[in-house]
Specification:
It is a single chain. 28% of the residues lie in helices and 30% in strands. The protein has eleven helices and 19 strands. The radius of gyration is 23 Å and the shape is globular.
Length: 398
């Protein structure tokens, strides 16, 4: 098979030699390799200006990130064999850390599978493909997962908006075996149910698991407010660890149905209440009703999806945390997260400090967390380090 060549402009290979996997369209020598000559998803041989081979990649000439490296070994193109190898390497990490098969199995670029994410729910897999290059390998991906993991079912959750940027349709389909309406998972000593068909993202937020674990020593006898609760992973875990009461707030009725089911599954129905409302409105009403909590959990969706949204998104983070502080007792704990890559740690911390000062409160940062080890960070790709969680003691002003 003859592989087309993608040439880079002079000196634009340095970042790639340092380990990065992305090629931007403005780095391509379009005189020697016109982008219009390539088909979305096809594999290319990546070469520098001096015609030295760099790597195998796949290309989408219509995307800003026009190519992504998949292999730096000339005898290993992207195919089912290479995907099998990547899965086995990824399992080598997960098997060392996790006693049960509930985790993110493949984390895109960080696991050498750019454009591919796989979450494992015991016997079932939820797969998300976000690039044309990986879409072209869909059958190879399903074959590799069946060969290595032997799941009872594989669901393709290809319904995310980012696919449209790659010229791909959105769809959800069972690619292999059968998937039940509800699947079960375990996190420490808690059991949960979720829907892989309708749940957010791929069905669960495994990236916060270690941060939820970090919360547990704080909750004994405390009144907890869980904002943006989704299926109750934070709140139900807190209740089972000894919280006196938990209120889970979410705008989705289906999410709160899962909260109720998960509370019952863990014998915590008497402690866990639900409130269907957007978080901003809920906080306003709770404040006016004189409700106060010992711990408030703020884990919103990404308010900053693009760099140009930084100013507006930062204001949203400040507003939601300021409102959360307004219902905290004098010596309360605010657990605040951001999954927005463009909101770096220092900016988030400054935003939280501004929120506390607007409420005439003082803060102490007592712990901090990041995404779990099943979401490893690629040192050359800063975008893979996206999750920040701060544990802040909120006191009267001093």
């Amino acid at each position: 098979m003859e592989i087309p060549v993608l040439f880079l402009k002079k000196n634009h290979e340095r970042r790639l030699r340092a380990g990065h996997l992305w090629v931007y369209s403005n780095e391509v020598d379009t005189v020697r390799s016109p982008l219009k000559d390539f088909q979305p998803g096809e594999q290319v041989a990546l070469m520098d200006h001096e015609e030295k081979w760099l790597a195998w990649a796949y290309i989408n000439p219509n995307s800003l990130i026009c190519a992504r490296i998949v292999s730096r070994q000339q005898d290993h193109l992207l195919d089912q064999s290479l995907i099998v190898h990547r899965i086995k390497v990824a399992l080598g990490l997960r098997d060392r850390i996790y006693k049960q098969p509930f985790y993110r199995l493949l984390f895109a670029e960080s696991d050498g599978t750019p454009g591919l994410v796989v979450d494992r729910f015991g016997k079932y897999l939820s797969v998300q493909i976000t690039t044309a290059g990986m879409e072209a390998q869909k059958d190879a991906i399903i074959g590799a997962l069946n060969k290595v993991v032997h799941p009872s079912g594989i669901l393709l959750r290809n319904d995310v908006a980012v696919r449209e940027q790659e010229g791909l349709e959105r769809y959800v389909e069972v690619a292999s075996g059968k998937i039940p309406e509800q699947v079960q998972l375990s996190e420490d000593d808690c059991n949960f149910e979720t829907s892989l068909f309708e749940g957010q993202k791929t069905g669960w937020f495994y990236d916060q698991a270690s941060n939820r674990r970090r919360l547990l020593p704080w909750v004994e006898g405390k009144r907890v407010l869980d904002l943006f609760s989704y299926a109750g992973a934070w709140g139900v875990s807190a209740a089972k660890a000894g919280a006196s009461s938990v209120t889970c707030v979410d705008s989705s009725a289906k999410a709160l149905e899962l909260v109720t089911r998960n509370a019952a599954l863990n014998n915590q129905s008497d402690k866990v209440n639900t409130l269907r409302q957007d978080a901003f409105s809920a906080l306003k009403e709770l404040k006016h009703a004189g409700e106060r909590f010992d711990i408030v959990l703020v884990d919103p969706p990404a308010f900053i999806k693009r760099k140009k949204d930084l100013k507006e998104g930062s204001l949203a983070y400040r507003r939601i945390n300021e409102a959360a502080i307004s219902v905290l007792r004098k010596d309360g704990l605010l657990v605040s997260s951001s999954c927005s890559y463009h909101m770096d740690e220092q900016r988030l911390l400054q935003t939280l400090q501004q929120a506390s000062r607007h409420r005439d409160r003082s803060m102490q940062l007592v712990e901090r967390g990041q995404q779990g080890p099943d979401h490893p960070v690629h040192p050359a790709i800063e975008e893979t380090a996206y999750l920040k969680t701060f544990y802040l003691r909120v006191l009267p002003s001093f």
